[in-house]
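Appendix C: a fully annotated inverse folding record. The material below is reproduced so that readers can follow the format used throughout the book. The structure is listed first as tokens, followed by the designed sequence.
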């Protein structure tokens, strides 16, 4: 068997064809850098989010959740440094008016859009936050920003959480939500968008303990991606050099994934010191120190942050799963090797034919499986074609009802990756699928 490389064009096309992701406002010609998640895309995204949430909160007794609002007091962004520092250097082509990030373009070269030489303006700093107003009139209304990261909602609630839930340092606060950045970008699908979702966790530790926890989270987050089913060889660390470090950071690693366009950041793990809490203490005038129960020591905690992109994770999961597999002379199947924990559909139930009562039995089996799994019932067309359709949306298991089912109450269980089939009694089907999910190992 052979397979060919995944390209962004192939992913975009599959995502549209099979109901994963659509261009935003497509009927109006589309809105650049904004995307909508269709019936299968929303399931995939929710499954990744749920997996992250479970890994971070349920499996860590010292991490609690939060869901802060997108709009916050504008002082939050002054304190965090975003009003002053959250900028990209931009240049415009004087000829065709195209806009580029100065750090992503060769300023000596010709404009990549119109080919004119010496046409770039001097770089200008451009703030990435979207600004708007609360209140009926723009003038005099309060300026608010669409949050460019979820982290500040966590810092702003640090005191609330410490005072009202029984957390003790070291502990974390986790949050998933939308963030907005006025990015200059027009390609690479959902990799970099103006509206996206982040999954962030701030871990508060005693000053001096941050290096130990930084190592812990670095390892933990890499293991998480392997548990999510991502191939090891597609993941790597990238350590930030001193000149790459953000103004607040003591140390930072990215976890990178080999996307179709090359190695790119997926998640940042940052040692943020006490920068954020100190600044919020200063700007709000509220005491944000923590008192150690035992020693009565008072201090501002240090923070280790794990900051992952949810929508970017969707792209990673799709790119990692995609395969065009040649399985015979001139026969190629497109298959998404999703880990069962993220697959939008876990089990498809297919009657071999519609007649002779097989469709009714299949529907009954599907209704029973629904209690435990995301199912899909498909009765139309040749069975081979129906299998391929499920392969293409990454359904790990198909259950087929045939004439033998009527005799002995068994069904065929077909595996997506190996295409192998086994006979299983209906009575043990739920348990068997559960076991298969637990022991899943990708083939192909
Ligand atoms: P970059 O340097 O690529 O702009 P960043 O280093 O500013 O990214 P962070 O602020 O550390 O990114 O954000 C954490 C994570 O949020 C990133 O690793 C990425 O997965 C995700 N993310 C950030 N910006 C975007 C965006 N515009 N679109 C989609 N995901 C994003």
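Designed amino acids, in order:
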């Amino acid at each position: 068997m052979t397979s060919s490389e995944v390209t962004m064009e192939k992913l975009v096309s599959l995502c549209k064809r099979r109901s994963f992701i659509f261009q935003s406002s497509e009927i109006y010609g589309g809105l650049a850098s904004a995307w909508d998640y269709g019936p299968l895309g929303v399931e995939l995204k929710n499954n990744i989010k749920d997996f992250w949430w479970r890994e971070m909160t349920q499996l860590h007794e010292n991490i609690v959740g939060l869901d802060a609002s997108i709009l916050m007091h504008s002082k939050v962004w002054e304190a965090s440094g975003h009003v002053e520092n959250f900028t990209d250097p931009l240049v415009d082509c004087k000829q065709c008016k195209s806009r580029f990030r100065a750090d992503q373009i060769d300023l000596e070269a010709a404009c990549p859009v119109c080919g004119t030489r010496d046409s770039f303006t001097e770089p200008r700093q451009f703030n990435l936050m979207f600004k708007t107003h609360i209140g009926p009139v723009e003038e005099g209304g309060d300026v608010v920003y669409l949050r460019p990261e979820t982290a500040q909602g966590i810092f702003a609630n640090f005191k609330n959480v410490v005072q009202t839930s029984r957390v003790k340092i070291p502990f974390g606060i986790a949050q998933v939500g939308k963030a907005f950045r006025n990015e200059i970008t027009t390609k690479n699908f959902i990799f970099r968008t103006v509206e996206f979702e982040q999954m962030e966790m701030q871990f508060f530790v005693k000053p001096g303990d941050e290096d130990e926890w930084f190592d812990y989270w670095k390892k933990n987050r890499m293991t998480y991606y392997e548990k999510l089913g991502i191939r090891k060889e597609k993941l790597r660390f990238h350590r930030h050099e001193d000149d790459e470090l953000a103004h607040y950071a003591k140390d930072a690693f990215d976890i990178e994934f080999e996307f179709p366009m090359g190695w790119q950041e997926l998640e940042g793990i940052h040692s943020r010191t006490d920068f954020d809490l100190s600044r919020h203490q200063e700007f709000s005038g509220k005491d944000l120190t923590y008192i150690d129960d035992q020693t009565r020591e008072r201090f501002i905690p240090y923070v280790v942050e794990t900051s992952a992109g949810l929508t970017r994770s969707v792209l990673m999961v799709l790119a990692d799963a995609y395969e065009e597999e040649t399985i015979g002379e001139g026969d190629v199947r497109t298959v998404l090797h999703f880990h069962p924990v993220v697959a939008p559909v876990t089990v498809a139930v297919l009657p071999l034919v519609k007649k002779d009562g097989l469709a009714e039995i299949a529907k009954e089996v599907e209704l029973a499986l629904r209690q435990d799994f995301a199912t899909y019932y498909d009765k139309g067309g040749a069975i081979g074609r129906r299998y391929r359709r499920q392969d293409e949306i990454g359904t790990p298991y198909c259950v087929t009802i045939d004439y033998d089912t009527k005799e002995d109450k068994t069904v065929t269980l077909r595996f997506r990756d190996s295409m192998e089939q086994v006979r299983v009694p209906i009575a043990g089907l739920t348990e068997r699928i559960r076991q298969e999910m637990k022991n899943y190992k990708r083939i192909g």
